[in-house]
Amino acid sequence: MPERLLSGIKPTGNIHIGNYFGAMRQFLELQDQYESFLFIADLHALNQIHNPEELADNIREIAKAYLAIGLDPDKVTLFQQSRVPAHTQLTWIFNSITSMGLLERAHAYKDALANERSVNVGLFDYPVLMAADILLYHPKVVPVGNDQQQHVEIAVDIAQRFHHLYGPTFTIPQPLIRSEVAVVPGLDGRKMSKSYHNVIGLFDTPEATVKKVMAITTDSKGLSEPKDPETCTIFALHKLFSTDQIEELRERYRSGSITYKESKERLAERINAFLQPIRERKAELDSQPEYIERVLAEGSAKASEMAEKTLREVMERVGLSASHHG
Ligand code: ADP
Ligand code: TRP
Fold first, then answer.
1. pLDDT for 242-282, tens place per residue?
2. What is the band of 165 on the pLDDT scale with cuts at 50, 70, 90?
3. 155 CB less than 6 Å from ligand 2?
4. Which CATH code for domain 4-182+288-318?
5. For residue range 311-320, what is the model confidence (pLDDT) as tens digits?
6. Distance (Å) from CA 263 to ligand 2 centroid
7. Atom of ligand 1 nearest to the CA of 185
8. With contact defined as beta carbons under 8 Å apart, do 260 and 274 qualify?
9. Do residues 310 and 137 touch, judged by C-beta distance below 8 A?
């Protein structure tokens, strides 16, 4: 049996090339090597998005993104978190053995507090739901971006606490983090993130993509001045899209024989060539809502079976199962 992998993406909006290179590409590369469970973390999105149409739309977009990049539902179990009630049920049991202190140390919560955002209980409890997401399926590995490492560690803490109280039950998971995938920069040079409105969307049109690339912020080096490739956002993106030409580009940056304009034009062409098949597949999927529904229904049924099994065992261990009354 291949080892199991599990990961999820929150449906919180426009999926971008940072998400692709930071998370989704790994799912694609690993789908033949692991028994993969990948899900739409819609319950996690609910503490951010309170507009029902927007949430429903985001859920469909993530489902299509998973399929459009080439994940094969015959190999991968694709499911929707909210269709598997065991996630919330296990969350409650974990809530009851998790200290406030553990969650008060979570970066996402601390960031929200620091930004003086009002914090809902769902956001505070997010790592516990995430622990349930993971531990229900006994995965060996959890591929995530850097920013999620702490959440996987909290899941491990919760598993160990449970084991201490009730005996061994869960597989201890490991985060799978690709250190070589640095943060993908956005148009303004900061981390590409939908909250910064600096993204190139996976489903942007070719025209919008060209416009965005031409608007990438650079320094003001003149046409034939030498340029530093390592501090240039355009170059950082070439590293993802123009790997076969990266040495030539580096050389031309250093010798001052490329303008930012030319570098941007080449990049836009490369990004568009890369995104074209993904967009085409997405357009097909737009006209196949029944197919998407079938994939999610079948995936969620399969996930439920496994999750239910774990939940029953947990209920047995904590003293909530019917057999304790006999
Ligand atoms: P956003 O910052 O746009 O809200 P999310 O936090 O929803 O993105 O991230 C979803 C996944 O994509 C996470 O695994 C995260 O690590 C990865 N990711 C997001 N932005 C980037 C980026 N700029 N570079 C690399 N990975 C990213
Ligand atoms: N918290 C993750 C993110 O923001 C999404 C997520 C939810 C997840 N549950 C998970 C990732 C379980 C891996 C495993 O990107």
1. 999 999 999 999 999 999 999 999 999 999 999 999 999 99
2. very high
3. no
4. 3.40.50.620
5. 999 999 999 9
6. 35
7. 23
8. no
9. yes
Q: How far is the CA of 128 from the centre of ligand 2 (A)?
A: 11
Segment 18-45 shows an average pLDDT of: 95
- Does ligand 1 lie within 6 Å of residue 130's CB atom? no
pLDDT score for 325: 62
Residue 186 Ramachandran class (φ > 0 left, ψ -120 to 50 alpha, else beta): beta
Tell me how far apart the alpha carbons of residues 45 and 50 are, in angstroms, rounded to a whole number.
Answer: 9
Domain ranges of the chain: 4-182+288-318, 203-284
The pTM is what?
0.93
Q: Is the CB of 145 under 6 A from ligand 1?
A: yes
Q: How far apart are CA 286 and CA 69, in angstroms?
A: 14
State the fold for domain 203-284.
Tyrosyl-Transfer RNA Synthetase (1.10.240)
